[in-house]
Design brief:
single chain; 249 residues; alpha/beta; 5-stranded mixed beta sheet; ATPase_NBD; Type III pantothenate kinase; EC 2.7.1.33
Length: 249
């Protein structure tokens, strides 16, 4: 079995694949290394032969996680690394090593699935948009705070904004003007996210007309799906890219 990990800023997303079919056997999301190991050790039938991961955390944090995985499960861990070019895609950053690895893998995954020009949106702690031309040239992208980050900043710096995550989830199905603070904040953040999308779509159409594919991925992608009904919702797009960056020999 193969263990795949997407180590983001806030959470670690994990999944277990069958070695021969790539079928997902189990998956989950945790908030710490300890929680990850506890979850995996509790799977009695787990027999890992390989592990691959992508991490946007510090080098020290990533090294610690790799060491724990190797010690606990006795597997070799492959870690995605920056590249100037891979699988027909050319990194568009002036310093290719400065492009976030999660973005790079989502770009690789999007281009593979689209087989042509594409616009990749990833909605996690940050909201990102990346433009990939038909020939595989990454044209660059945009980054802004994601919904969770906008929400936490309002809660931190505005004294009278106080509500929990349960209340937040109950008010996002509608985008009419809020009549409570939680409605106003949550719907306002959602509208900012959708406005971000609309502008990127206009830029993409100015370059490619309608001949491009739109991908939505990340924890909060569902908040944007109504704004782009033609988009492909691929929650595990980073894992598609991870398989490209860290193939099993």
């Amino acid at each position: 079995m193969i263990l795949e990990l997407d180590c983001g800023n806030s959470f670690i997303k994990w999944r277990i694949l069958d070695l021969y079919t790539d079928k997902i056997s189990l998956e989950g999301v945790v908030s710490s290394n300890l929680e990850l190991i506890e979850n995996l050790v509790a799977i009695r039938w787990l027999s890992l032969v390989s592990c691959r991961l992508v991490s946007v955390r510090t080098s020290e944090e990533t090294r610690k996680l790799i060491a724990i995985l190797q010690e606990t499960f006795g597997v070799t861990v492959s870690c995605a690394a920056p590249a100037q070019e891979m699988a027909g895609v050319r990194n568009g950053y002036k310093d290719f090593e400065c492009l976030g690895l999660d973005r790079w893998l989502a770009i690789l995954g999007g281009f593979k699935l689209a087989s042509g020009a594409c616009l990749v949106f990833d909605f996690g702690t940050a909201a990102t948009a990346d433009f990939i031309a038909e020939d595989g040239e990454h044209l660059g992208g945009f980054i802004c705070p994601g919904v969770s980050l906008m929400r936490s900043q309002l809660r931190t710096y505005t004294r009278k904004i106080r509500y929990n995550d349960v209340a937040a989830k109950q008010v996002t199905a509608c985008i009419s003007p809020g009549r409570t603070t939680v409605e106003a904040v949550e719907r306002g953040c959602t509208l900012m996210l959708r406005g971000f999308i609309v502008i990127q779509l206009e830029l993409a159409r100015s370059q490619w007309g309608d001949d491009f594919t739109v991908f939505l991925t990340g924890r909060d992608a569902y908040l944007a799906s109504d704004a782009v009904p033609c988009a492909r919702l691929v929650p595990d797009l980073v894992f598609v890219g991870l398989a490209i960056a860290c193939p099993l020999l």
